[in-house]
Amino acid sequence: MPTLLSGNEAIAQGAWEAGVVVASAYPGTPSTEILENLVRKSSVRCEWAPNEKVALEVAIGASLAGARALATMKHVGLNVASDPLMTTAYTGVGGGLVIVVGDDPGMHSSQNEQDSRRWGPFGKIPILEPGDSAEALAMARHAFGLSEELDMPVLLRSTTRLSHGKGLVEVGERFEASRERYRTARPKWVMMPGAAKVRRVDLERRLAAAAELSETCEFTREELRDTSLGIITSGIPYQYVREALPDASTLKIGMVFPLPEQRIRDFASRVQRLVVVEELDPYLLESIRATGIEVDDSGLSRMGELSAGAVAAAFGASAPETREPMTGLPARPPMLCPGCPHRGVFRALREMDAVVTGDIGCYTLAALPPLGAMDSCVCMGASIGMAHGFALAGESPEGRPVVAVIGDSTFAHSGLTGLLGAVYNGGAETVVVLDNRITAMTGHQDNPFTGRTLAKTPAPEIDIEALVRALGVEDVHTVDPNLFRPTEKALRSAVAHDGVSVVIAKAPCALLNRDRPDPFAVDESACTACGMCVRLGCPAISRDATSRAFIDPESCVGCRQCVQVCTYGAIVRTGRSCDVGSGL
Ligand SMILES: Cc1ncc(C[n+]2csc(CCOP(=O)(O)OP(=O)(O)O)c2C)c(N)n1
Question: Whose Cα sits closest to atom 10 in ligand 1?
Fold first, then answer.
């Protein structure tokens, strides 16, 4: 019976049906839900790795042992995993090895947009690209066998639209792949120069075999209609082409590296005008032109997502019917949640006028007004190295302290080595580990500091304080960032320390706490409209018509953060006087 599945659910189902035994991932939109779905199925060992490089290495190890293995990540995660990736094409595989990468055209949840199809020619790795959930399932199921047949890892490329969109699929049974007993295979797997040179030559042979398989790939489909226009496309853009140009002939490519050159030539010979429609980079266009085939560029933007409307406009076709978005909905500017413990740290850093090198997580929202307390955000783990480099460059402007902020999951991902480098080189930066006990931004995944695995079973809860001391940090403070005065005191003491300091701001994410004490309200007779509470950037607090503060009782979680900044005692627990208004 057909089932409605998202692209991510379909990939999990396809990998399971293929008999995957080991799956490892680091969360990242749009790929996160693949492992969250796979872990619910039987016979697969699924884990969150601390980062994507480790996830891929775990999968490579499982493949070496002869098991079918999967690693999933978002596009920037593949940059982190690129070191093992680039050599795994040389070693080849034992059990089938599939890497799923989720690209994010339009940057719905990412710091950049990348076109992972480029990893094909760069890493010399075959790539499959599905265009809907049914293909996502079928390709995931197929990819493991393909990997074994070619003795190469296979990349399955998705995009946000596919990963999160839903479509009908036929689910099947699990296939238990036969497994050979592990036998040492040193020249194949030990990539010292002598052996790597041999595998480099063999890689060309395997690439040629992959190119041959691409010519007969069942996922590449020629659909001849009106032959005055032939469109070459792949993935989700195929759907836009079908909607915008229903009469055009299409060659939908399923294996985007290596490309099926002969099939492209054949299609080109059957249509009068040949045009490529693709999202992001001109990957198909350049690759096809390099073979000498004449092909036109559609002229579509190389930035962001395509749409059926954009494709229609590029070809002068009438725009397909679309529904207008609803109007009049309340605006929801990005802000830290009510009760978010990160707020206490950024309020203090703003008061201290610190130069704050930031990182990626919910806390990056503190860069926005009214907190406005972050100066950089480049990639996961960058904050500590950047703080060190900033300080090395000379005196910070007007003697402002230099502070790096990094979330707990990000610290495990790629913060540890930055801290090690700062200690080793005699740095004097302050590092704040924003330990909200979860990987909040991507939807509450566990990590090495939470004490739970992906399957929610107990795990060793790594002690951050002991860890940073072991890395050589002598000045370590642990504070509850919901308590503003002690947090600011710890931060001021840390920046005054001559050497690397770490402040661990430890309090659970507000969304982990389901108890909601009574909300607070503003006592209008006491409020002077000074705006101190509004400057906390809490979505529950706004100004009323008289500029006095107003607390929305539906949004307030009773965290008491605002009470601490109101020096007039004007914020009171609903129905009774506030007993905690000590102010700052
Ligand atoms: C290399 C890479 N992998 C994954 C992501 C997706 N991602 C962004 S922030 C983040 C983790 C955030 O967790 P944490 O550091 O604990 O901060 P929190 O959101 O809990 O405040 C992840 C997984 C990314 N941007 N880059």
Answer: 361
Q: How far is the CA of 332 from the centre of ligand 1 (A)?
A: 21
Calculate mean pLDDT across residues 114-141: 98
- Is this structure's pTM higher than 0.90? yes
Q: How many domains in the chain?
A: 4
Q: Which of 75, 439, 447 to mutate to test the pocket of ligand 1 (most atoms within 8 A of CB)?
A: 439
Is position 331 within any domain?
A: no
CA 411 – CA 550 distance, rounded (Å): 37
Q: Among the atoms of ligand 1, which is closest to the Cα of residue 436?
A: 20
Q: In terms of domains, do 407 and 539 share one?
A: no
Which pLDDT tens digit goes with each residue over 210-231? Answer: 999 999 999 999 999 999 999 9
Summary mean pLDDT of the chain: 95
The answer on 149 and 26 residing in a single domain is yes
Interval 226-274: pLDDT, tens? 999 999 999 999 999 999 999 999 999 999 999 999 999 999 999 999 9
In angstroms, rounded to a whole number, what is the distance separating the alpha carbons of residues 357 and 50?
A: 22
31 lines ligand 1 (CB under 6 A): no
Please check whether residues 309 and 431 belong to one and the same domain: no
pLDDT band at 4 (very low <50, low <70, confident <90, very high): very high
Instruction: Tell me the CA–centroid distance for residue 31 and ligand 1, in Å.
Output: 13
Under a CB-based contact definition with an 8 Å cutoff, are residues 462 and 452 in contact?
no
Residue 294 and residue 418 in one domain: no
Predicted confidence (pLDDT) per residue in 497-530, tens digit:
999 999 999 999 999 987 888 999 999 999 999 9
Instruction: Tell me how crowded residue 302 is: count the other CB atoms within 10 A of its CB.
Output: 12
Domain that residue 482 falls in: 342-512
Q: In 3D, which of 336, 415, 439, 435 has the Cα closest to residue 27? A: 439
The whole-angstrom separation of Cα 259 and Cα 498 is 58
Rounded distance between C-alpha atoms, residue 383 and residue 377, angstroms: 7
Domain check: are 236 and 207 in the same one?
no
Ligand 1 atom nearest the C-alpha of 110 is 25
Distance 131 CA to ligand 1 centre (A): 27
**For residue 582, is pLDDT > 60?**
no
Pocket test of ligand 1: the residue of 34, 346, 409 to mutate, having most ligand atoms within 8 Å of its CB, is 409
Q: Do the domain assignments include residue 584?
A: no
Candidates 224, 256, 218; CA nearest to 237 is 256
State the CATH number of the domain containing residue 190. Answer: 3.40.50.970
Summarize pLDDT for 448-480 with one digit per residue, the tens. Answer: 999 999 999 999 999 999 999 999 999 999 999
Is 325 part of any domain? no
Using the Cα atoms of residue 433, residue 438, residue 442 and residue 448 in order, give the sign of their dihedral: positive
- 122 alpha carbon – ligand 1 mean position (Å): 26
Of 164, 195, 215, which one is at a domain's C-terminal end?
A: 215
CA of 555 to the centre of ligand 1 (A): 25
